[in-house]
Inverse folding.
């Protein structure tokens, strides 16, 4: 490899690391059913679950519904993480001809 190619590779590595850092520091919040809200970090870590205080559990079905809403909100937030990651890193994946995530 010539020096110019090496410079381009180093620059791309720095850009990728910067994008990965931006993704990791980002947070994504999604709601489900108007009752549950979750916040997920770009790493996929669940940071917060909020449940509207007006929601009351009166039966087993309410408990199941609450669980389903938490899962739905997390999945929606996780989808946002995936979309954001693709926006930030997709061009590098195409350049490198493989999967990065």
């Amino acid at each position: 490899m010539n020096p110019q190619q090496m410079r381009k590779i180093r620059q791309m590595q720095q850009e990728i690391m910067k994008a990965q850092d931006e993704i990791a520091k980002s947070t994504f919040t999604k709601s489900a059913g108007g009752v549950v809200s979750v916040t997920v970090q770009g790493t996929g870590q669940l940071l917060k679950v909020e449940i509207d205080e007006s929601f009351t559990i009166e039966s087993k079905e309410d408990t199941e519904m609450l669980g389903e809403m938490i899962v739905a909100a997390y999945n929606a937030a996780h989808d946002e993480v995936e979309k954001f990651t693709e926006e930030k890193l997709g061009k590098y994946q195409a350049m490198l001809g493989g999967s990065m995530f």
The mean pLDDT is 93. Residues 3-96 form a domain with the Ybab; Chain: A; fold (CATH 3.30.1310.10). The beta strands are 27-32, 36-41, 46-51. The chain is about 60% helix and 20% strand.
